[in-house]
Amino acid sequence: MPREKVISMLTDFSKQRPQVWPGLWEGAYEVYSVGETSADVKEGSKLPGMIVWAKEHYDWSDPNAVRWTAVESNFCAAGSHVAVTLHPREGGGTRLHVEWERTGTTVPGKLMVGMIKLSNGRPVAASIKKALAKLER
User: Could you give the maximum distance between any two Cα atoms of the chain, in Å?
Assistant: First the structure.
């Protein structure tokens, strides 16, 4: 998939975002501002027995990366972030490198962050793969 399409998917803050991204709960999704290379949004997930959310600052001023940083959250520390760096593949397409650095602040948050780290990021990778598959359709 071309880099431009991947960036577009990562930075699409339309009403359809919760339908594209598995795990995003529409009830926690709010868009505060969207600029040319940044956005401020609230995103969250409804999990069994809990709802987690974070107000995030997205930055895609680097044309080969999108980074979102927690400003406020009910599960992770402010400054915790996720960064996706895009690299061209030989023969076409784009390879993604995902850096997931979250620090849990509550018992459920610490459990969730710990599970993601123990699984080597599998839930994060699965979410990105599902969103990319939807984009390809």
Answer: 46
pTM: 0.92
- Residue 48 binned pLDDT confidence (cut-offs 50, 70, 90): confident
- CB neighbour list of residue 124: distance below 8 Å, 6 or more residues apart: 82, 98, 100, 116
How far apart CA 59 and CA 37 sit, in angstroms, is 6
Is the separation of the CB atoms in 73 and 110 below 8 Å?
Answer: no
Rounded to an integer, what distance in angstroms lies between the CA atom of residue 104 and that of residue 111? 8
Cβ contact 102:70 at 8 Å: yes
Domains in the chain with CATH codes = 3-136 (3.30.530.20)
Collapse the DSSP code of 55 into the 3-class scheme (helix H, G, I; strand E, B; otherwise coil) and give the result: strand
pLDDT one-digit tens code per residue, 17-26: 999 998 899 9
Q: How far apart are CA 19 and CA 13, in angstroms?
A: 11
